[in-house]
Design a protein that fits this description.
By secondary structure, this protein is of the alpha/beta class. The protein is built from eleven helices and six strands. About 3% of the residues have low confidence.
């Protein structure tokens, strides 16, 4: 079972999400919080696998709560689910450590699958958000990679990076390069370290900007 904490200041939203996600046999909602501060308390007590986080909330917003959760509990994945597609919100959430950024108008079955993928370590972004992030990189001061760091990459790491930029999962990359998923994970970790990026979301954004026209 994937244990979920729902964080949203709208009670009806939380109730609807809980009812919807509880229909999935492998998902369990273990807690609900109506602001970022309450989310921190719940995370400490409940130790969920995935936190479904809204952005704008009283007392403490989702961006700050995401940063604090990701710092204190690196094994817990935070997935932002909101109505706001503002460039600053998106880049702030990703820099804070969120493993994904989704919008509330998405189909329920896609949300359930996104939760599963985030739990497995994959990045999930709503359609067209990568382009918005790339367009906002100079303005929001998102991490830029010095050219000398990229030049240190091996040929295989370049191949993995390019496939990440195309939105491929670790399994997709393993199949295309005829290597194991474990080897792909190792390459991803090396890429994060070499390029001095914090998470796979930043890596995907950087790769997309380098290899996509």
């Amino acid at each position: 079972m994937i244990r979920l904490l729902l964080v949203d200041d709208q009670t009806l939203i939380c109730q609807g999400l809980k009812a919807m996600l509880s229909l999935e046999p492998d998902l369990e909602v273990v807690g609900i919080a109506n602001n970022g501060k309450a989310a921190l308390d719940q995370v400490t007590t409940l130790q969920p696998d995935v936190v479904l986080m809204d952005v704008k909330m009283p007392l403490m917003d989702g961006r700050e709560a995401t940063r604090l959760i990701c710092q204190a509990f690196p094994n817990i994945s935070v997935l932002v689910l909101t109505t706001f597609d503002d460039d600053q919100y998106i880049s702030d959430a990703i820099r804070a450590g969120a493993k994904g950024y989704l919008l509330k108008d998405m189909p329920s079955e896609e949300l359930a699958q996104a939760i599963r993928l985030v739990h497995r370590g994959y990045t999930q972004l709503a359609p067209k958000l990568i382009e918005k992030l790339i367009a906002g990189i100079p303005a929001t001061k998102a991490p830029l990679v010095p050219s000398q760091l990229q030049s240190q990459l091996t040929r295989r790491e370049q191949e993995v990076l390019q496939l990440i930029g195309r939105g491929c999962t670790n399994r997709d990359i393993a199949e295309q390069l005829y290597i194991s998923e474990g080897t792909v994970k190792t390459h991803v970790n090396h890429l994060l370290n070499r390029l001095e990026l914090r998470n796979r979301a930043q890596l995907a954004i950087y790769a997309h900007s380098q290899f996509q026209s």
